[in-house]
Amino acid sequence: MTTPVLTSQATYEAQTAFVAELATRLHAYGTSAQRLEGAVSAVAHRLGLECEIWSNPTGIIFSFADPVRGQQNGITRVIRLEPGDQNLGRLAATDAIAEDVLAGKLDLVSGFAALRALDRPPRRRAQVLTALSFGLSAAAVAGLLSTDWPDVITSGSIGVLIGVLYVLAAGRPRLAEGLEAIAALIATLLAAAVATFIEPLSLKTVIVASLIVLMPGLTLTNAISELSSQQLVSGTARFAGALMSLMKLTFGTVAAMQLVRLLGWEPMEAAPQALTWQAEMAALLVASYAFAVLFRASGRDYPLVMASVVLGYALTRVGGEVLGLASDNFAGGAFFASMGLAVVSNAYGRWFNRPGALIRVPGIILLVPGSVGFRSLNFVMERDVFLGLDTAFALLSALIALVAGLLFGNLILPSRRNL
Q1: Is residue 5 part of a domain?
Q2: pLDDT number for residue 7
Q3: Which residue(s) pair with 55 in the sheet?
Q4: Among 19, 181, 228, 253, who pairs with 248 as Cys (CB 3.0-4.6 Å)?
Q5: Binning pLDDT at 50, 70 and 90, where does residue 377 land?
Q6: DSSP assignment of 121-171
Q7: Which of 321, 335, 407 is nearest to 364 (CA)?
Q8: Which residues does 391 contact at the CB level (< 8 Å), separation at least 6?
Q9: Final residue of a domain: which of 82, 116, 150?
Q10: Residue 169 and residue 222 in one domain
Q11: Which has the closest alpha carbon to 148: 288, 271, 285, 266?
Q12: Given pLDDT bands bounded at 50, 70 and 90, which one contains residue 65?
C-alpha cells in the first residue's frame, strides 16, 4: 500500500463523510458485501483513516476511529438502505471519482459533491428503453433456449409488457412489492391464451423467457459468493431475498395455471425446434444489447458489456461441448466460463484502472441459474416433489460451479481493489 494521502488537507469529518458516501454508492449500485468492504477499507487506508465497516443487503454500519482519542471515541454510523441494483454506469463513475480523490485531482468536499451529483432521476427515454429491453432479452433468451419463432415473438411481446410494469413499479412501492407475482400471473395467462387460441407454444419455455429479467439468478450467485467469503449474515439475507422472489414468481405462475383450468383453456404444446446457428447468433447479440441497457452501462461501455455477454456464452459452450466438462452432476461449462471471465475482468481492471465488474457481471448473466430455481419451486408447488428436489440439486450444482470458477479466477489473477 502507498503512503496515506490528503491527511494534512482534509478534516476528519470530510474524510468520514466521503468514505460513507462512497460505500453507500457502491451498495446502491449492486456491489456484493465482501467486495464493498474490501474496496472501502482500501480507500479509507489511503486517506489515513481507521475504519471498520459491516455491510449487508439492507444497510451499512461504519465505525471510524478518532484521530486523537482512538477507536473507542470515534464515530459510529448506521445507514439503512434498500437492496442495491446493478448500475454499471454509475459504478464506473463512482470508481473514477474515488480515483481522482486519491490522486489529488479532487479534494474530499468536491469528491463528496460529485458522488451526490450521481443521483439523477431516470429520463423518459431511458425508461422506454428499459421496457423495450425486457422484451428484447425475453425474445433473445427464448431463441437461445431452442424454441420456434412463435415462442420468440410471444416471449418478446410479454416481456415488453412486464418491462412497462417494472418501470411503473419504480415509483409505486405497493406495486413493487408484488411485481414478481403480478408479472408471473400476467405472463402465464397471456402465454396460455396464445397457446390455446392462436398458435401452439413451448409454454414453460415462453413463461421462463418472459420472466427472465426478474429471475434472481445473479442475486443467488452473489449470495453464494458472500457465504463462501464468510459474509454469513449478508449471504444468508441475500439468499433469503432471492428465494422470496422465486416464491412470488412461482405463486403467480401456479395461480395463473389454476385460473386457466377454471376457464377451460387447453394450451397447445409445440415441440421444441432449434433455430439455425445464424438465428442463435442474432439472438445472442440482441441479448447482449438488452443486458447492456438493463445493467445501465454508460454509452461508451456498451461494446465492452456486449462483448462480455458474448464471451461468457462462448466460454460456456467451449467448456461444456469442446472440452467435454459438462456432465449430469457437474456444471463444468459454467465453472470454466466463470473462471475465464474472472481472469479477463481482473486483467481489464488492472490494465485500465476501471472496475472489473464491467466485464464480470454481464459476462455471467447467461450462466446464472435463476430459471432452474423457478422450475424447481414450480415442481414442488405442483406436488411433484421428487422432480423439484432433483431440479434443486441441479440449481445448487450450477451455483457451486459458478462461484468456484470466480474464486479460482481470482486466485489466478487477483482483482484490482475488489471491484
Answers
A1: no
A2: 44
A3: 60
A4: 181
A5: low
A6: PPPHHHHHHHHHHHHHHHHHHHHHTT--HHHHHHHHHHHHHHHHHHHHHTT
A7: 335
A8: 372, 375, 376, 379
A9: 116
A10: yes
A11: 271
A12: confident
User: Could you tell me if 184 and 253 lie in one domain?
Assistant: yes
- What are the cell numbers at 371? 430459471
Q: Is residue 4 part of a domain?
A: no
User: Which residues pair with residue 56 across a beta bridge?
Assistant: 59
Please, what is the average pLDDT of the chain?
A: 86
Segment 128-159, tens digit of pLDDT: 999 999 999 999 998 888 778 899 999 999 99
Of 88, 116, 144, the last residue of a domain is: 116
pLDDT at 374 over 70: no
Q: How many CB atoms lie within 10 A of CB 75?
A: 15
Give the type of residue at 36: L
Provide the residue type at 35 as one letter.
R
Whether residues 255 and 329 share a domain: the answer is no
User: What is the domain count for the chain?
Assistant: 3
Helices (H), 356-384: 357-364, 370-381
Q: Which residue has the cell 481492471?
A: 349
Choice among 2-16, 253-267, 332-346 with the minimum mean pLDDT:
2-16
198 and 345 inside one domain: no
Residue 95 lies in a domain: yes
- The per-residue DSSP string of 219-237 comes to HHHHHHHHHHTT-HHHHHH
pLDDT band per the 50, 70, 90 thresholds, residue 322: low
